[in-house]
Amino acid sequence: MSFFKGYLGLLVSAPVSVALEATGAGYTRQSIAFTATGDGRRTLSVSPSCSFGYATASWGLITGLALFVDNTADAQPLIAWSVPPRSIATGQTYSVSSDALSLLMQTDGFFSSGDRVGMSDSGAEIIARQPVAISHGILTAAVGGSAAASGEGSVTISQLNLTLSQLLQGLPTTDPGDGTSLWLNANLLALSTKS
Which Pfam family, any one of them, does this sequence belong to (predicted)? Predict the structure, then answer.
């Protein structure tokens, strides 16, 4: 099962929750694919490691990795995690180890920007950089387009369906009796009422 197919980028000079992408000459995101194994929580890069090209100008201090849906300049990272800091100067390259590309993810859910969504084999927390959803072992952006960065945007029918499905899966199947809770009664939404 394909957990994610897109691009791996390098983040520089800050914690992964706010770090910007490297921009030095010679730097470009690398295409990458992750597959889910077992129950969908463990995800592995299809390749055991990933190497970036040679820097023709300094890339700065690499502090994190990020997954991007596409390779456009305005794309924002979906998720990011830290790596041991390393400065990349002209003539050097950066290789990512298999430990940093083996991820233990939450099984399903909707995650807001800044939420912890998993952990890498090297022990780094994986942080959502924008609203994301993990459903049936697949990572997707929860809000589309560049409007996601400003907190505004539209939700597609597919994204709404995914969110509602996740909500329904998380509801109790018996009346909690508190007079305020939603619950599922024969796969229909019900509201708890006090008698």
Answer: Gp80
* pLDDT digits 0-9 by tens, 54-63: 999 999 999 9
User: For 66-123, what is each residue's pLDDT tens digit?
Assistant: 999 999 988 999 999 999 999 999 999 999 988 889 998 877 788 999 999 999 988 9
Q: Which residue has the tokens 């979906």?
A: 78
Contacts of 66 (CB under 8 A, 6+ apart): 8, 9, 10, 11, 16, 21, 77, 78, 79, 80, 129
What whole-number distance in Å separates Cα of residue 103 and Cα of residue 37? 11
Task: Tell which residue, 17, 124, 129, has the closest CA to residue 77.
Answer: 129
